[in-house]
Amino acid sequence: MMQSKLASLTLKGFFTLGLFLGVLFSSFAASAQQAAPSLPLLFDARERLARPDLSSLVRLRFLTSVDFPPFNFTDQNGKLSGFDVDLAREICSELEISDKCQIQAIPFADLRDALAASQGDAVIAGLAVTPELRRQFLFSRPYLMLPARFVRNLGVPLDGKTAAALSSHPVGVVRGTVHEAMLAAFFPTLKAEPFDTKDALLAALKDRKVDAAFADALQLSFWVSSPASAKCCALFDGPYLSEHFLGEGMTIMLRQKDSVLTSAIDHALATLSRNGRLQEIYLRYFPYGLY
Q: The Solute-binding protein family 3/N-terminal domain covers which part of the protein (predicted)?
């Protein structure tokens, strides 16, 4: 049974790989002139996680997919790339086992069964953590949270810089999504305008049929930077995080028997968070930031 990607955040059908790469590469020059967006620390700076002995480890096989840019994809040269791919390599480097590491891409639907069958040792591909999966697998600590954000039409005057300024404005949201439920719970006084699809929502925002929208920050950040938005809009207020609505965040899934390896990966993630390497990878793929 195929598990959903984290918060259903795949960009397939929303943002083509070619357009994603174009926005990504054009963003570097612009972001160089701005303050670097900050990645919130998910590990306590005072926390020191023990580094287990991996001397008996024969190899570490990361499994990922290629349909979830910017986390994993095949670039224009046919090379496996993405945030998760670079992070896996950094984890191996931090644990001093780069010569034992492999990264393999397989269809997303096969990841769970492949790990269960020991065809790999760790899945790094945006699998949503569920109670069912927790009964069968171990998970690392989260290394990235994907927040919800508002996006506003810049042609609409707002009296303030927080969500309170939207109190008299229609705010679009995709019907039946976690973001619709989250908007209602976090901002019950805002006037929500539901749309059937994200394309319809963004078209309405661009045409000023709604003044703002509430959705996934990942998709919104790339849309406002892409030609599709025609520079109509900008991220506004936030970010907003909620484990109840948005899940536990990006994690690495391992087999139940691999508690030592799980602890080693947690140690590596904590170290990469403290020494700034995780931030560097984040800026490589999210130059405009999610937060």
A: 59-289
